[in-house]
Structure formats: structure tokens, C-alpha cells
Amino acid sequence: MEFEGCSCFRQRLVLSTVSGKRVKIRNIRSKDDSPGLRDFEASFIRLLDKVTNGTRIEINQTGTMLFYQPGLLYGGSVEHECNVQRSVGYYLEALLMLAPFMKNPLRAVLKGVTNDPTDPSVDLLKVTAPPLMKRFGIDGDSLEIKVVRRGMAPDGGGEVHFSCPVRKFLKPVQLTEPGKIKRVRGTAVAVRVSPQMANRIVDSARSILNKFIPDIYIYTDHMKGVSSGKSPGFGLVLVAETVNGTFFSAEVMSTPQGQGDQILPEDLGKKCGKLLLEEIHRGGCVDSTNQSLALLYMTLGQQDVSKVLLGPLSPYTIEFLRHIRDFFQIMFKIEPQKPGDEERTGGEKVLMTCVGVGYSNISKPLK
Amino acid sequence: DDDTEEEEKAAKRGSGPDPGHCSEEDEEADSDMEDGGKTSTKHPEDEMELEEDVEMGSETAGALRWKEGLAQKATDAYLRQQRAAPNLRKLVYGTVVAEEEEDSKDEEDELGGLFKVSRPEKNKRVGADALDCSRFQPDSNHDWDQEEMLASIIDCFVTGKWEEDK
Predict the structure, then answer these.
(1) Which label site among A329, B28, B139, B165 has the fewest CB atoms less than 10 Å from its CB?
(2) In this predicted model, what pLDDT tens digit does every residue of B125-137 receive, in sequence order?
């Protein structure tokens, strides 16, 4: 398959790896002042190379063209120094998609930036992705994302452990009822700044959310010494949990040191609270960050009907749907669902339906 | 006076739901001084109007009263647009051809048939080298300081209203 440009870079390589189809990407930033692949993309390719066996990668001299022939998903213990231009979340999102289809259960140690303003942070993925994966039958004690050391942008120095069991098949799912929100949890992070920052964030976030629900608990996570990484920073991750086990999340991180205006902890808390309300307004059974993860698992499920109710599709998800069509020839049935006149449950939802391709993990050993 | 004429006109027709929308006959009646104001209100709603034109035909409203209840009208227009139920499947899967067509345009700028002028791409093919990030930026129209917005999600919580059967 051939593509142009470096948008949707991870989607293309991940789908190529699970489908076994080779990809060629041309004209990567060919008109940019600094053409070619960036360091974080190279780092991402190296990570894919580590979790697979027999992958062939060719890059031309200027880095504007990439040829990728996927190998077998091997898994096992992997340690990777993630480039600090993007946070570990960037790399972890792709690993979450691939991990269940490995030959050996994946145990990855990812080092780098744990929180930055661009990508979903490890803390956010930690609370939203595993519950979703459990719905598809990927469960067990070994499914875990753990922040061992924190590292803020721009210098990082954090460490994240991710382990995931392997599955031969994924279960088809019927997630159509999000349920009502019963509680809000959160983590206020502060490293290499006063611990008081975390408390200030918590108070302001509560002031937004207290109108809706009394059950709010926001942990303060202040790491010290070696576990605090190389850069100062603070931030907040909020999660709303429904009675049916849907998790909506939002996060805001402080501006990395030396990259523009700093944000006050109070403003950050308020902003994050409002973002959570926005996410609740979008609604659905999967939060906006994990839409594409859910859609991939649906595509790769057994040959049975899967249904998932989503909020409005994010631009990233729409691209992902197009790529799924290109790689697997699967097109989803997309039905808009309007909320009733009496219900005040946010915006319009979309019901996504598809029949899985019946993907089976042939490399998983039989025991 | 133009002004009074306008208002009478509007009253006769019954107040249309969207005054940013104007038909040809309305524009003729307009005096020059109003044109600036009118076009500026029209502009942001252009997209919606394309759809509405078909639905509402020549329905119009007073030119001077366009300022009244703008928020309410915007909400109405938004809801109407929502009700128009776009074919999502077509939106997601049906645009491949349109994207490819754009490519052919920027092949022309050549100096002496030898050098090609390389311009940074601004509008064309923004998508090709876009940032690869899964975060969904929030809708900027949603102001979470407004009571109406807060009220719109109140039933998402256990503290809100429950359906009959639960």
C-alpha cells in the first residue's frame, strides 16, 4: 500500500503490522525546511522493530521515503528509550493496539516523557484503556500500565511499565448503554515544583464539578528525588466513571519549561474540569481518546456483529476508519443517534456497527 | 424611510427564524449603509444557509432586527443543521476522490521551464504532513460557563433524572 506524507503515521504502521501488508510512505515532509522523518518517528519505528521479528525497514537518504514490511508480532520483554519530542503516550497508544496479538505476552519498559500537553498522557491511558480492553476479553492480572518514574516535557526522564496478556481471539462487544456517571476520580501531578501546586489544582477542579456530583476524589501525586524526572511541571487528569463501566477522561498539563507562557494551577484545574464536561457532553461508551482502539478491536474481532456507541467521531478516528477500509476492506455502519427531547445527556451520538474479520492470533503458542 | 419599510415588511411575513438569511428582493430594498452589517452577519453562517435555502425558499426577515436574540437564532440554526442528519457514512468514506483532485493544481509554477517554485504548503493538502495526534480538540462553541451548557448534560449523572424502567 502506498501513502503520501507523515500524517497518521502510527495508524498506517500499526495496521500494516496487524494485517501483514507492506506499506510505502512517500513525500514525508518533502517541502518542509527540514525534510524527512523526525527523531520521534524514527524512535517509533525502532520500537515496532523491537516488538516484532523479521521486520524490514528501508528509509532513503533524505528520510522522505519509508518502506515498511512487517514481521511477526513477537512481544516478550522490551525496553525502549522513547524520543522526548513526543510523550510515552504516543508510543503506548500503538502498543495497546498491537499487544494482544503478540506471540509472547508483552512486557515493555518505556522511558521518556510521561506527560506533555500534546499527547494523551500515560496517566490518562492507564485509567481509560485497560477497562475498555477488558470488554474485548483482554483481561487478567498482567494487564497493567504503571508509572514508575515521572518525567515531564521537555527533558523527560520518566519510566513506564506496560504489560499485556495475549489472546487468540477477541470477543465481539455490544456497548450501547453508557450508563450514568457515579463518580469522578483524578490525579493531580506535580513534580519538581511545590506540592502545594497539586492542592491548588484540586480545589479549582472541584469547584467546577461539585455542581454535578458529590463523589469526587482527586489524588495528589507528588514525586520526589529520582522518581521526579528531569523537568518541572504539573498537571491534572480527571476521569468520570459510569455505572456501566465507561470511563470519560480529560487532562491538562502545564506548558513545558521554556516553551511559552506558564498557566496558573487554578486556571489549569478549571480548564481540565471543563474539558471533562465537554467529554461527558460528547458521551458514548468509549471516550474520544480511545475511539480508534475500540474500532480496531471491533474490526479484528470474531466474525460476529460488534456494536459500539460513540460520541462524535474525532478527526483522528475518521482517518482511522478510512485506513481500516484500506487495509481490511471493512466499512462500518454509522448511524447517528439523537437524544430524546426530554433527556439532557449531551450531544449527538453515533452507533458504529461492523462484522469482525475473524482475525486469529496464529503466533500465540498452544498450551 | 427604508427602516420602517423594512420592519413592516418583516412583520407582514411573520418573523423568519433566521434573519442572517436574506433573499434577493430583500437585498434590493436595503439601503447602502446596511450592507456592511448584513454581509458580516451572513458570513459565518454561509454553510448553514446553503442547506436552509433549499428548505425555506424565499422566507425572509427584517433587516434591522438581525441583532435581536442572536444567540437564540444561532441555537435554532444549529439545531436545524443537526436535524438535517448528514450521511455520516458518506462523510467518512466518500471523500477520497476529492482529495486526489487537489494535487494537480500546484504543478504550474515553473521558472524558465527549469526551476520549480517551492512554496510552503498552507492550504493545499494540509492533511498530508499533519500532526499525528489522537487528541480530540474540544468544540470551541461550547462555553462551559453558561448555565444552558451545564444543564445539557445534567442527566448524564446518577444525580440526574432516570428513565422509567431503571
Answers:
(1) B165
(2) 556 778 888 888 8
